[in-house]
Design brief:
- The complex is a heterodimer of chains A (304) and B (539).
- By secondary structure, chain A is mainly α.
- Chain A is 68% helix and 0% strand.
- Chain B is built from 17 helices and 19 strands.
- In chain B, helix 9 (307-315) packs antiparallel against helix 12.
- Chain B is α+β, with helices and mostly antiparallel strands.
- Classes of the chains: A mainly alpha (304), B alpha+beta (539).
Chain lengths: 304, 539
Amino acid sequence: MQYQQELFTPLNAPELAGEQMGRESPGYWSDVWRSLKKNRLALSGILIIIFLGIMAGIGPHLSGSAYDAQNLSLANRPPGGGYWFGTDSLGRDLFSRVWIGARISLTIGLFTSFICFFIGVLYGSVSAFIGGRVDDIMMRIVEVFYGIPFMLYVIVMMMALDTGLRAILIALGMVYWLDMARIVRGQVLSLKEQEFVLAARTLGAGTWRILTRHLIPNTMGPIIVTMTLLVPNAIFAEAFLSFLGLGVSAPMASWGSLASDGIQGLRSYPWQLFFPAFFISITMLAFNFLGDGLRDALDPRLRQ
Amino acid sequence: MLFKQRRFLGLVCIVSVMALILTGCGGPSGPKETAGQQIIRYNASAEPQTLDPGMATGIPEMTIINAMFEGLTRYNNKNEPAPGIAESWTISPDGLTYTFKLRDARWSNGDPVTAQGFVDGWLRALDPKLASEYAYQLYYIKGAEEYNTGKGSDKDVAAKALDDKTLQVILKAPSPQFLGLTSFQTLFPVNSKVVSAHPDWIASPENYIGNGPFKMVSWDHNQVIKCVKNPNYWDAANVKLDELHFYLVDNNTTGFNMFKAGQLDIQYNVPIQEIAGLKGNPEFKIMPNMSSYFYRFNVTKKPFNDPRVRRALALAIDRQAIVRDVCKGEQLPAYAYIPFGVPEPGGGDFRKTGGDFFREDLDQARELLAGAGYPDGKGFPAVSIMYNNNDQHKAIAEAIQAMWKKNLNINVTLQNKEWQTYLNDMQNLNYDIVRASWTPDYMDAMTFADMFVTDGGNNLTGWSNKEYDRLIDAAKSTDAGNPKARVEDMHRSESILMEEMPIMPVYFYTQPILIKSSLKNVIIPPFGLEAEFKWAYVE
């Protein structure tokens, strides 16, 4: 077979257009965001949370009366007039109080979830990665904590720490990390046998580096879902504590303490219970929708 | 007696409230067929800690025990001790020796009630092994305190059964209040045969043998205690009720809803927030109550070691607004410590004779505060008001907190505590300001006055005043036999108390209750008991 030189022309294009990417390849997070956007419930959850966040910031200043300004002669006014949500038994503006309550409740929710993030993730991953007897001991400790009725534990802790916002944060943070620790441990146990860990080790990475650079980032999905679902749990726990009178100290308000005050006059002044209860409910729903959506979006097996 | 209002605790209550909201009715049991029968269903508001007359301390417990027991005397509808098991008594001229003549009375199991039964009951309450908190109610009797504190023996307690029907008691010092105390639970008799045969007699309805108008037939814990008329009661002819049910619903709102739904005939504690809506309702009544609501200052601590600060704070709150807009139960603003209704020798009223000791005055309050070194509240230390967990206490504390802020520009924080922690902290002076109240143990100003003697068990402020101690001591000893001088001592002691103000009076209680109009002769006494059912009937 002979070559005919003239049949061939040299190609001058420096790059091959066909090999170029049509668009940037979707990264992990943009992929998550894309599938989250398709989930209407999760999206509405995000919008509600943003709305609540904004109102928690500006809400207390909108009505013109401070959350703790009493006007005893205007007690128990129904919604309307100068008081959009009515007034409570001491003549305080319920609108301002509901949004101050939002501030407290959301702070408690987010803060608790972050405390759990730090304790739980560290505890779970250390336990799983070191393994052996250390793992045994650390997990038995978690199980002992599991064995104690949760509310009892929180109440005892609040007694020791004195009531108040700080005590609630510490008490809730100290009990809610258990789930997080277990989830992270499970993830790390399965990940640590994989080749990339072996590779990292072979290249000389230490335990700490492998944990923080390789293992924890790979467990981020379940961690974020757990954190999201923990926020409403913490808010609800605080509401429950306030209901028992162990919440934030008066005149500060949280949704729980507002509901607790409101139920006293349920028959005569139903709005005093309605508004805090309503906002507790929609916050619960919003965070749960978001958590569910995130779980779907973060799970590679569920992604199309 | 500490005025205790229990608060519900636990998921159960919330669940029951939820159930109530969801179903529109609720409570432990459905409506009962009551037509034609004489039944009263009363909400005692809490599961009793104990129904042991020697041990019980709470007013709800006392109410239940009183229906099934009777002491030497029983308070009548005029709030006077009237003959109970004792049909008559004599008091020696020196006021020391009481001789009670007992009537023919029987226990609910048919055994006779003897003088020895009283001695047994009293010695049992005093027994250091029983460790009854209320043993001190018997300390008026010679030798009682020694026996209770382990310094003496039971043989030296000067209560003797001279025969089956005669009881002789010798007191340490003349004590006009002793007669009234014989109607008090700690001084009830016990049936020794039953107590020794059944050590757990308190817990079982069939062995809970009393000598009162009613006897227990069942006790469903946390739900209801059912009593029926006791046919062996000496005055059974005057007991018209067939049955008396004590419901044990501790949530006021639940109780209120049960009353509205016709499942209760009396709800003693009315939720404050519902009071405004009940005005004009014939089933809603505001009964007098001889208790005092006040704040204690911890005088061992800065800034309350300065009487000017204490007075300034007391002058700077609006008591009218508190009773009108916060409590709403027609309570009376208190400008003195001892409430209305305490009788004086000669028929007067202790409070009316004593009058008010101060007035609210903002200018003077600011001046006093400036004089103490805190002009316009500057430099005032961080202090807190402690209260036990209760919505009304919380609301009042919040109102006072706002008034002090507005009027004196001082910031105080609020601390709520569980009942036991609250008691502990108060006893250890581990507080700045604490809300408190006192309800009399007997119908005499002394039950209020002797609290504040130096190191008194119920002083709890750290306050001490020699002249005050001297006056109380005189009233109990040298002036005890002279009613006029005795009451004068107490008036003077109260004026010292209100001059120095280790406590800040807030208001005098009332008792708003819900009671069916068909109920007659239910006595709602101003202290000691929530309700007396002996003479009650349904029309």
